[in-house]
Structure prediction request, 115 residues.
Amino acid sequence: MTGIPTLDTVVLWAGIIAAIGGALTGLYRWGRTTRRGLKRVGQVLDDWTGVPARPGVLERPGVMERLRGIDDRLGALDARVGAIEHELHPNSGSSLRDAVDRVDARTAHLDKTPP
Prediction:
């Protein structure tokens, strides 16, 4: 201390004000960071659960609803791929592969060039 009571009081109060200001600044920054983090968490939750339509904004389905749609489309694709595979492999004579093999066998004698 300086030994001057008035100056010591002013320095003490300046230190208290600086400490309070620093604490308030720290709290403000912590609160801002926390608020930003919570906003991001809210956005993730909105994406996960979906957002209903409101005036001027389209509905956004949630993750589970979109996955169900993907599963439905994959099921339809599986059926189509199965039908295509059925045509590409020899079976009871009704596949495209069987038809090509029959045409090849009937036209093999037309090729006069030796292999």
